[in-house]
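Incident log, entry 3
Record: SnoaL-like protein (121 residues)
Problem: checksum mismatch between cached and fresh output.
Input:
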Amino acid sequence: MKEREALIKKLNEAFASCDTEFLAKSVTDDVKWEIIGEKTISGRKDFEKSLDRMRHGGPTEIKVSEIISAKEKSVVEGIVEFYVEPGKKKKYAFCDVYIFSNSDGSKFKELRTYVTMLKKK
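Fresh output:
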């Protein structure tokens, strides 16, 4: 499970730095990314298009607070910051559920993202 935790950390670092090449290589061809309550992205091509859009307004920082792995699933909790307009950031709490392919544990076939905006204190 240490290898999986390291991979999850690398995936989150790649999302934060918009390393679309690494992310695209980390999914199966039939990947499904469901952003709960928002949209579902299906297939590698749509996943890559979505990643390309991240370059223009994607996350600026991701802080992972916990990773839990069991069998083919890993759950990640943390805080992510986005620019919502020039010079203005907002923070969101997130929980990602990664489901990895059985044939190759280094690629995920499904990602479910739960996200909510944090209110300022």
